[in-house]
């Protein structure tokens, strides 16, 4: 049993008894490493999931590490690439240790790398991160695009607009930190939760080591979170940032609709002076929530969760 102490305004404690939920943590993934964890009750019902997205691939040349990594906004200072965690616990199973077990399982298997997580400010997820000693990196905005608000014919015109110096390349599969964008484009597409669109310089092909001028990447969540999260657009130095940013983002939105027709919305997180904003606004992305980004280095213990909250 775990004791949960709550406090009224006058300071009197209300003590409740909350039992930890009996769960098994199950891991799934592919040959490049497990990326999904599920918290499952003894009767087989999933009550929570964790999805660890590896640092996304970089263009072959051009951007600084900050611009090349879609886990950090293009305006951010250079930093070590970070794996991004999406953690979800069903409401009926919250405050019963499920989130803590999932976080511990991810950290135990993920290796000596940085972990970042985006949470909505002021929510239970925000408090969870503070309790577990995650360091607040920055605040930002969650932007959302609803497919119902997109004029598909207009979107097609954006994608079909001529760009004589470039051509579009598309790819689907599972991303891994060992791959760069050019490597992915040279790999045959296959099943997976990642959708990539890149603008390569004309006269080059992926098989010949194409020069990647820009790219945008979307990752589709699991059944508990069936939306897509967009990273980028990222544009290499020396290329038209606004034009290629709009083009690759529009092509990603269109291609995602083709390969994942059940997806109804795409989300991304932006910073205050994010250079991607003009391209995102042009497509119809709108700010919906204030978010916090937290970090915890792998291989370092979190602080002991405070006992005035149930985990």
Q: How is this fold's topology laid out?
A:
Layout: E1 2-7, E2 13-18, E3 24-30, E4 33-40, E5 46-53, H1 65-68, E6 82-89, H2 98-110, E7 114-120, H3 124-131, E8 135-146, H4 152-160, E9 166-173, H5 181-185, E10 194-201, E11 212-220, E12 228-235, H6 241-259, E13 265-270, H7 277-283, E14 286-297
Parallel strand pairs: 6-7, 12-13
Antiparallel strand pairs: 1-2, 3-4, 4-5, 5-6, 7-14, 8-13, 8-14, 9-10, 10-11, 11-12
Description:
The chain has 311 residues and is of the alpha+beta class. It folds into two domains: 2-142 and 291-297, 3-Layer(aba) Sandwich (Aminopeptidase), CATH 3.40.630.30; 144-287, Gcn5-related N-acetyltransferase (GNAT) (Aminopeptidase). Helices cover 21% and strands 36% of the residues. The protein has helices spanning 65-68, 98-110, 124-131, 152-160, 181-185, 241-259, 277-283, and strands at 2-7, 13-18, 24-30, 33-40, 46-53, 82-89, 114-120, 135-146, 166-173, 194-201, 212-220, 228-235, 265-270, 286-297. The chain has a twelve-stranded mixed sheet, sandwiched between helices. Strands 1-2 form a two-stranded antiparallel ribbon. Strand 1 (2-7) and strand 2 form a beta hairpin. Helix 4 (152-160) packs across helix 6 and helix 6 crosses helix 7 (277-283). The longest helix has 19 residues, at 241-259.
